[in-house]
Amino acid sequence: MPSPASSPPSSPVLPLLGRGLVAGGAAGLAAGLFSLLLAEPLMDRAIRAEEKRAAAEEHAHGAAQAAQHHEELFTRSTQHAGLVVSAVVAGLAIGVLFAVAYALVHRRDPHAAPWPRALAFAGAAFLAVSLLPGLRYPANPPGVGDSGTVGERQALWLASVAIGVLGMFLARQVYVRLSARSVPVRQMAAALTTVAVLAALFLLPDNPDPVPVDATLLWDFRVLSVASHALLWAVFAAVFGGLGLRAVREGAARGVTVGASAAGVPSRPGATPTAPPR
Question: What pLDDT does residue 136 have?
Answer without folding.
Answer: 93
